[in-house]
Amino acid sequence: MASPSILAKSEWLRAAETLSAAAVGGMILTWLGFPAGLVTGSLLGVATAALLGRPVLVPAPLSRAISVLVGISLGAVVTPETLKGLAAFPLSVAMLAISTLCMMAATASYLRFVHGWDAQSALFGASPGALAQVMVLSAEYKADLRAIAIVQTMRVVALTIGIPAGLSFFGLTAEGGLLARFTAAGPASIADLAVLVVVSTAAALLVWRLRFPGGLMFGAMLASAILHGVGIIHATLPWWAVYAAVIGIGAVTGSRFANTDPRTLLRFLGAALGSFAVAMTIAALSVLVLTALMSVRIADAVVAFAPGAQDTMMVLALALHLDPVFVGALHLSRFLLVSMLMPFLAYRFRRGPDKPMRERPPGATRPTIED
After folding, report:
1. 218 half-sphere exposure, CB direction, 13 A CA radius
2. How far apart are CA 106 and CA 87, in angstroms?
3. What is the DSSP letter of 281?
């Protein structure tokens, strides 16, 4: 058996390869002028490497550091004017709750009646976000882990590619890239930067210790947003640190394809794309209603209502020059709603011992936790 030091070295070598694939993918799409190309390209670079059989990996300590850096970056773009948008939150959250319930019902029905999934697996596959909680419940109830993971991950990939392209096509993206956003304020003083990093990191660790969902990112974002929103600090992270964090988030998302057989991916591709189309139809209708009732930018509402992972969607908001406070608050609200609803619904739709296995997704086998 290999020693712990050799295992650790092997893991970090895999991480270096993973981040290299992410960086190359991000640079290519950025060079091609794709909106939010850094995060989209890094995701696709790592996902492609994984599907080609490479052992992609982002170690937990590195993933946590990336979350803190992203949180600091998100909070750094908050201004006193940004905070005025808080008045739009109550109605937006109420609309989001209705949209989430409709989205889950419609998507689960699609997976169940079109693709033959059992009710419980369809419910887990329809969940908009909260992937970690969904996978834990899926393992507990012996649902089809691989099918659910593929549908959920493909949804995030489709959103990460489709949202920037769609917003750009309709002229709803802001001018200037991510670099311009973090060089406009000019060079930061070492003292201000140190205060920003120390305070934000301390807040991130505190919120994380309290087991708050997405605590590292949201804790750092909250501290950074307060420091910038009230005008105490004007410093931002260096552009290269922001770029590294964005590439890191893309790598984390893309690494979900690790150990995925391309044939298995193709088998569930129809369910993934079809359920994505159903979910986005509900989200689009909700965005139309919200923007008709309130003065909310369409691009902000699109990313806030998108049924994707909160970390990836918030990085999209950062890269597309959107309102990170609005997007983050709504994704957090949905995360809490789904996390509270899912255990109850999973128990309600649990599969009985005499339930025929033919209701499982086509081609699926009885899963193990390792799947």
Report:
1. 19
2. 30
3. H
Phi, psi of 295 (to 5 degrees): -85, 75
- Whether residue 2 lies inside any domain: the answer is no
Which residues, given as ranges, of the chain have pLDDT below 70?
1-7, 80-88, 174-188, 213, 350-371
End-to-end CA, the chain: 23
Cβ contacts of residue 147 below 8 Å, gap of 6+?
117, 121, 125, 268, 271, 361, 364
Residue 69 structural domain: 15-359
pTM summary value: 0.80
169 membership: H or E segment, kind and range: helix 145-169
Q: Which of 269, 220, 285 shows the shortest CA–CA distance to 66?
A: 220
Token reading at 346: 């999973």
Q: How far, in Å, CA of 34 to CA of 26, rounded? A: 10
Asked if 108 and 125 touch (Cβ cutoff 8 Å), the reply is: yes
Q: Which of 146, 112, 157, 205 lies closest to 306 in space, CA to CA?
A: 157
pLDDT tens-digit series, residues 89-144: 788 889 999 999 999 999 999 999 999 998 888 999 998 877 777 877 787 888 88
| Interacting residues of 284 by C-beta distance below 8 A, sequence separation 6+ | none
- How high is the pLDDT of residue 353? 44
**Residue for token pair 């109605």:** 91
Number of domains in the chain: 1
Nearest to 112 by CA among 123, 99, 104: 123
CATH code at 74? 1.20.1530
| Domain assignment of residue 367, yes or no | no
